[in-house]
Amino acid sequence: MVLREVDMKSLWVYLSVLLLASSKMVDGTPQVPCFFIFGDSLFDNGNNNGLVTHAKVNYPPYGIDFPQGPTGRFSNGRNIVDIIAELLGFHDYIPPFAAAIGRDIKKGVNYASGGSGIRSESGSIQGMRITMNEQLINHQTIVKRIVSLMKNNGPLAADYLGKCIYTVAIGNNDFLNNYFTNLYPTSRLYTPEQYADVLIQEYSQQLRTLYNSGARKVALFGAGSIGNLPFEVATCGTNGGTLCVDKLNNDAQLFNARLKSLVTYLNTNLFNAKFTYIDTYGIGLSSAASSPPGSVIYTNPCCEVNKITGLCIPFKTHARTGIRRGTMLGYTNAQSPEHVKQIVSLMGNHELLAAEYLGKCLYTVGMGTNDYIINYFLSQPTSFRYTPQQYAEALIAEYSQQLKTLYNSGARKIALFGLRSSTFNARLKLLAQELNTILPNAKFTYIDYYGIEDSYMLLLEAASICSLVTHVGCCISGSKTGGCIPSEIPFKDRIRHVFWDGIHPTEATNVAIAARAYKALLPTDAFPYDISHLTRVL
């Protein structure tokens, strides 16, 4: 029986994330007692719903892929911290501060607020928001309530809070809704270097306040590639183009470099502090680079967005049929975390047993046909940029990294099907030999599909995995806000998009960032620990 394309896609991701999901506790107990969240719209899960602000998204098409619909999350589905909560073993998502009640606060609270920044004035052009300083005040209120729940036993509460995970993603709005606009004087008062120093100085004081409230294990997410946001790219298009985009990204990197140094400083100077840096910027760029050429959509969002706010325009109608949810950016197929849980549970949630099991399985990969048929052979820039030999080399370089990812997910016995391109096949055969030499116990083998009869073409086409889209967003966005325009129909194929609206990532992108923040794929993803290691340090 010929496997459907979606089945092949699901199989690939099952294998690539199985060991990641299997890190949960055997009895289903969360790895840490509580999870506290601070930040901006990347982490906000409903705190802005009751505020008078443009930065709230409790309307369709937001939440189109979330079971509860629009909740105030700035995405089509789960956000980054939702996925991290799953990976940490929590059975429910962490509640927003606006709805945190009773004993539920002991498992954690989400204080994040869209539009907020390190500086109190950042984001004020959007309306009301809960600044980082105000989020810390809210946290101190929660800490007092937790102490009360522990019968005012201060040492017991301190020990409890010290075992929790804290994530903070703040700083993007200090650039997007402060330094990069003409409505604030900061760009005239500070050079980019000086502004980064000012932000880090204030951020350092805020993190000390968090530490003094009991936090010890704190993951700090760096600024993203803000120059690549569709909203900013559109703005730069009329004001400097590529140079404008590069300047935005370079200024954000000045902040990130100082934030990484701050982590080292805090860990050195604060007793038992375990701060760690998450390289959001690098994760995003390297995830895109690991996708097939022309496979990731950056420039356009999934929804029609408001050109002023960058958010999806409210109440555009939408359809759920045909939606393939959960694909990770940088991988080539779809995945549902619930399916992964079922597979791992069959192995008794035993990681080593699962690894041994996966090492005995047979893996087949038929990939690359679409890189020729619906890329190189069409009016694509690849055919102008590369000779056939150069293009084959570029594909093999990408493919090599993807196969190493599959290997790192437990695969050992892997059959690589060639294409109807002798240039590509010759390099693929050499790649199989190279991987067997450099990867311990690897058993890659090359299948000469080029010499197989035409009747097998149907099987290859069914097994081929489509590339992710890189140039169209999910919703129609307003030209000034970048938000989805209300009641417009977003694209159904949202798993192929990096951005949901003009500013915020899709659930697929959130999965990729969260997965690599939790368990680093590259040494540069997290410093000095990824979140999975952070849960285990004493």
TrEMBL record:
<dbReference type="GO" id="GO:0005576">
    <property type="term" value="C:extracellular region"/>
</dbReference>
<dbReference type="InterPro" id="IPR001087">
    <property type="entry name" value="GDSL"/>
</dbReference>
<dbReference type="GO" id="GO:0016042">
    <property type="term" value="P:lipid catabolic process"/>
</dbReference>
<feature type="signal peptide">
    <location>
        <begin position="1"/>
        <end position="28"/>
    </location>
</feature>
<dbReference type="GO" id="GO:0016788">
    <property type="term" value="F:hydrolase activity, acting on ester bonds"/>
</dbReference>
<dbReference type="InterPro" id="IPR036514">
    <property type="entry name" value="SGNH_hydro_sf"/>
</dbReference>
<dbReference type="InterPro" id="IPR035669">
    <property type="entry name" value="SGNH_plant_lipase-like"/>
</dbReference>
<keyword id="KW-0964">Secreted</keyword>
<dbReference type="InterPro" id="IPR051238">
    <property type="entry name" value="GDSL_esterase/lipase"/>
</dbReference>
<comment type="similarity">
    <text>Belongs to the 'GDSL' lipolytic enzyme family.</text>
</comment>
<keyword id="KW-0378">Hydrolase</keyword>
<protein>
    <submittedName>
        <fullName>Uncharacterized protein</fullName>
    </submittedName>
</protein>
<keyword id="KW-0442">Lipid degradation</keyword>
<keyword id="KW-0732">Signal</keyword>
<keyword id="KW-0443">Lipid metabolism</keyword>
<dbReference type="Pfam" id="PF00657">
    <property type="entry name" value="Lipase_GDSL"/>
</dbReference>
